[in-house]
Amino acid sequence: MEVAIYHSRARNPHPRNTMNWKNPLITMVMMIGLARPILAADQPIVIPQRPDPPITVDGRLDDWASVPSKVEMDRPDQVVYQPENWKSADDLSAVVRFCWRSAGLYVAAEVRDDVFSNSGSGENSFRGDILELYFDAAPTRDPSRDEFGGGQTHLLLSPGNLMDDRPPGAFGRVNAEVYRIYPDHKSISDASIASVKTQKGWTLECIIPWEDLGVTGQVGRGRVFGLEVALDDCDSSASRQEKMMTISTRAWKHHSRGRLIEAVTADAGGTYVLAEAPKPVALLNNAVIAPKGEITRTFDSTPRDDGLSPALWIRARLQADKNAGDTFALNVYVNDQKIDGSRILNKPIMMRTLDGGTISIFSAGSFGFRIPYASTYDEANLSQAQGNPYARFDSTEPRTDFLIDLSGMLKNGKNTLRLVSADPSVDRAMRVEAELRQVEPKKEAVKREMIPAKDYFTPEQPKVEIKFQESADARIAVNVGKTTYQCRSSFSIPGGQWVHGGNKYFTHSRKIHEEDGILVVEDSFTNLGDQPLGIMQRHEITAGQKQANFYLNGLKRPPNLPGYFQSNNPTSFMGSEGGGIGMLPLDDVFLIHGENYIGGDDTIGLCDRVLVIGPKASHTVKWALAGSADGDYWNFLNAVRRYLKVNFTLTGPGAFMRMYPPYIDWPVERIREQFLNRSAVYGMNAPSFRLTYKGKTLPYLINHGQAAMDVTEEAAGAKKWIEALPGLKVIQYFACFIDSSDDGDTRFADAAILDAAGKPTNYGSYYYPLFIPTLSNDYGKSQEQLLDKLLSKIDLDGIFWDEISYSMVQYHYGKPWDGVSGDIDMKTFEVKQLKSSVSLVSRDWRIKQARKIVEHGRTLIANGPIDAQELRDMHLMAFTETGQGSFCARTQLYTPIALGDHLSEVTEADAYHGMLNALDYGCVYYWYSEDVNTTHKTLTEHMFPLTPLRLGPGFLFGQERILTRISGYFGWNDSSDFDVHIYDENGVLRTDQKTVRVIVDGDAYAAINLWPDWSAAIVRKNVK
Predict the structure, then answer these.
(1) If residue 786 lies in a helix (H) or strand (E), which one and from where to where?
(2) In Å, how far from its chain's centre is CA 1020?
């Protein structure tokens, strides 16, 4: 007899949503005997408790003899898939048993199978002989939803390839495994499973921790679940599912909650009690909150002794004619205490988006809960597959629904619920429903453990040799290490055709050269006609085999991601263990036009779908390919950064503060304290505002353009800042695409940015009209006058240029034409309409102003992409805003600086976690909201100056210092001396932490051992 045991204790916690458990059954007492149960619709599967000693998970089932429950699968009506292939119980049948302990659910199966075949692992193991477990941790939650979603789990329980003589763990051996195929396609490392080959088949037993089944709270007698077991069989050498048996005889439907059987936990003898669960108490039913209004309800609450906790369920939407976007719009108060995002039970505050990014569903700094616009709740909660482009979240939880923990908030007796439509700019009524529910207590946080240093980190990256061979039809064979990739370019011509070189419409020539490990490609086109010609281009790289890692715009993406993506980080990358390759545009036009996409599980692409060349005109496109020796995106990124020469010194920190009440009225001591606690080198001012526009009173109106010409307030503020903190560098706000003066829309009408219908555009409101500054128009001259006044009338050290490349609108449908942009019909490939990139038309003006600032000896700090090579050559610092944490990836190709998130950062602990998020993307951090009250210095104290050498996931190497939120041995490949500063999960400097200096082959390393959410700054001494 051969025994295969796979037993792993490596913890890999997978937090699950806390669900509301309700059981509508009346109170009943039941005793189950040892006889075979008949599973009628009203009779649950009984899961007895296992007293001491626990089951030994070894694949032998002798310790299950005393478990008073079993389920048999041996009848032809239980074969729900390809029943014609089932011959007899000897061909396929099983006895399945369950029991429970506080540690988890135990499953055992004694399988009769005359031919054993199982060669797959992970998600493919169902093609062989395995057991499948379908489990519903919250069977009465959202009872109208039949498909699997929040609370349901699908596991594959594989015995491995027991017919193999090789020992477990040997090369080619398939080990026994618990694999969660739904919701997250993940091997469950903290489950224990074992299997044994027998004369008539095989046995399997395992224990699955409750948390890996989505179960929350304490499990006791009478807990109701839904489950089903499927037994898969393969009798041939080909790996394929030939038949399947289930416990139930009902027609099979994959991932159907209605297909599951009710199951209940019992005591050791099989006795259980099903008690009627508390029913929800309706508080609001289709109530309406007026714009900027609120609604209040009172309700009763009494203490409970059943172990359940009170929770508030809210469903809300902003009234709209059709499905639209969403916005932070709802603040919730219970007994006048404001609810914060940490109390959300049914989904995390930071949601993963379908395109690989993240987005917050709650913002204390803004207006509370993120609420969608829609005409109905059903419409709002449609998925992207159902045609809803606004369903951005990677979650089965409805966009409209929030379950809020009320533990510790309610009084015995009368309580008050108040809902406030908080955003003053929202002019739509809000529909809301609310219930008071009783749910299982919120699960305590997983025990935190220190993560010891293991890996060594240095600034060095593996050098990648890249070779190429060019052939006809715009093909390039690219060798990276031992891997050859095929790259092919295609270009559009009128008539809806793609070509690969010159033709009757245009000439094409190509130059390719290798430069510092980067393959640079230049494609030159000349329009042979007398009309503007659209030349869409797409460059695709194919690996020839499935790739493991896909990154678009610096974010890890699934290989089946549809669509085209545009970003300040316009990179496409794919890779596997054998190597990787990526691509990006290089010239100014392609950087602005370029889009990235995935073309399948072995293809990536880079394209320009708006390139239009004028009559008889020529244009050259420049783009690059770069390799990665080990298939890692970060190696590709750092190779590209070195080629782009963007590793220049970053200074800071920067911290914003407004120079108008109430901030300017703060005492000097408070201003000093806030700048000092932020360790600010740069004090950056926000724009001033007024309350009227053309005689109409507004909540506030930010002064832009000619409206900002009176700099008295800014001059006084700068003086007070310098008084508060001598040596602080004052950085003044400036924006160039908006003029909010009363007559700006008429005075500069000739410079207005027009939409496709020829109408002037604005920055979301009519009083923020948008314009393009040029060297020849009056608007450009007026903006230059404003900049000159800022530089001459205020004692300042620099300019903060907000949205330096464009503001809100990227393209202008009017004169002047930029000579390279237009809308192209996607069927005929004909030019439909010319348009101009706002960035390209304003480029010369912006370069002139930037040079002026630098030549005056002032610092220029920008917000957004630096999209012109001449500007990048000035080594200006630019940051990205982080309304979503994943926006940090946008800045990885230039200066990796993340601006704090004013929407989610309310406390200094929030700001510190923003710094940790920045490090996840290899970025440093500038402070944003002055509303974050700081009481101590934190990681930014030792963050600057930093000259980047290597960006990594969770760390950043600089010549002067190393910043990390991960453990490891860090050094500069030399004997440098250094100081180490450790910060805890609240961003507080820990003076009790000692760091070991390790010498390996004469090189010095700092042994950094961090707890979760801790960080370290390793500051190099005597940097040359």
Answers:
(1) helix 778-793
(2) 33
- Joined together, the tokens standing for residue 975 give 């004997």
Residues 900 and 934: their CA atoms lie apart, in Å, by 14
The predicted model scores a pTM of: 0.71
Helix extents (H) in 79-152: none
- 97-142: pLDDT as tens digits: 999 999 999 999 999 999 888 767 677 777 789 999 999 998 877 7
> CA 190, CA 188: separation in Å to the nearest integer?
6
Q: Please give, one letter per residue, the 3-state secondary structure of 192-235.
A: EEEEEECCCEEEEEEEEEHHHHCCCCCCCCCCEEEEEEEEEECC
Q: What is the pLDDT of residue 156?
A: 93
Which tens digit of pLDDT belongs to each residue from 559-615? 887 788 899 999 999 999 889 999 999 999 999 999 999 998 999 999 999 999 999
- Give the amino acid at 232: D
Amino acid letter, residue 576:
S
Tens digit of each residue's pLDDT (9 = 90 or more) over 312-322: 999 999 999 99
pLDDT over 60 at 190, yes or no: yes
Q: 149 CB contacts (<8 Å, ≥6 apart)? A: 142, 396, 397
The rounded distance, in Å, linking the Cα atoms of 914 and 910 is: 6
Q: ω before 452 within 30° of 0 (cis)?
A: no
| Beta carbons within 8 Å of 737's beta carbon, 6+ residues apart | 753, 770, 771, 772, 773, 803, 806, 807, 808, 838, 842
Cβ-based neighbour number of residue 149 at 10 Å: 19
Q: Distances in Å between the alpha carbon of 47 and those of 104, 192, 227, 844? A: 12, 19, 11, 75
Q: How many CB atoms lie within 10 A of CB 148?
A: 20
Which residues touch 485 (CB under 8 Å, ≥6 apart)? 477, 478, 479, 541, 542, 543, 544, 581
Residue-wise pLDDT for 967-1012, tens only, equals 999 999 999 999 999 999 999 999 998 889 999 999 999 999 999 9
Closest-CA residue to 225 (of 101, 104, 151, 139): 139
